[in-house]
Amino acid sequence: MVKQRIDLTIDADLVEWLKKHAKENRTNASSLVNQYLAKMKAQEEKDNAKKA
Q1: Using CA atoms, how far apart are residues 38 and 20, in angstroms rounded to an integer?
Q2: 8 Å CB contact between 22 and 28
Q3: Rounded to 5 degrees, what angle do the CA atoms 24, 13, 26 make?
Q4: Is 18 exposed, middle or buried (CB count within 10 Å of its CB: 0-12, 13-18, 19+)?
Q5: Chain-centre distance of CA 21, in angstroms?
Q6: Predicted pLDDT of residue 32
């Protein structure tokens, strides 16, 4: 996967959550976000299949 650096402003509580969970899971924030997006995509595909 190609990574790209961006500037992003997010709430301080989200930053702390990402730091905590990334440290606990021995992963990085990017991986956590990718996992969440994969779940969202799978759910979207499931919902679209039901509509068809």
Answers
A1: 21
A2: yes
A3: 15
A4: middle
A5: 12
A6: 81
Largest Cα separation within the chain, whole Å, is 41
Token pair for residue 8?
Answer: 């992003």
Per-residue pLDDT of the chain (52 residues; tens, 9 = 90+): 788 888 989 999 998 988 888 777 777 888 888 889 999 999 999 999 988 7
- Give residue limits of the domains in the chain: 12-51
Q: How far is CA 28 from CA 1, 8, 18, in A?
A: 14, 16, 8
